[in-house]
Amino acid sequence: MAEIKFEIIEKVAVLSESTKGWKKELNLISWNGREPKYDLREWAPDHEKMGKGITLSKEEIIELKKGLNNLDGIE
After folding, report:
1. CA-CA-CA-CA dihedral for 36, 38, 44, 47, to nearest 10
2. b/e sequence 22-55, b meaning 16+ C-beta within 10 Å
3. What distances in angstroms separate CA 29 from CA 14, 67, 70, one per listed residue?
4. What distances in angstroms separate CA 66 from CA 27, 56, 63, one per listed residue?
5. Using CA atoms, how far apart are residues 42 and 16, in angstroms rounded to an integer?
6. Rounded to an integer, what distance in angstroms lies between the CA atom of residue 21 and that of residue 5?
7. What's the rounded Cα separation, in Å, for the pair 11 and 27?
8. Is the pLDDT of residue 74 over 70?
9. What is the pTM of this model?
10. E strand or H helix at 61, and its extent?
11. What is the per-residue pLDDT across 24-65, written as a single tens digit (0 to 9) for each?
């Protein structure tokens, strides 16, 4: 299997951290030299290992933000 290359362009937010030091992060990442996308996944402390995640375009992250802003009962 080909090696996956990535570059974290911008660290946006750390949402949580496990007792083993893995962090659930929202970052702007370029995968294999492509246009950067927003990416939500868990990362090992050294960013050498990662869990499964999702990538979102700028348009998708804007729609997600709108949806989150419309949630009732969340501060």
Report:
1. 20
2. bbbbbbbbeeeeeebbbbbbbbeeeeeebeeeee
3. 14, 23, 27
4. 18, 14, 5
5. 9
6. 23
7. 5
8. no
9. 0.87
10. helix 58-69
11. 999 999 999 999 999 999 999 999 999 999 999 999 999 999
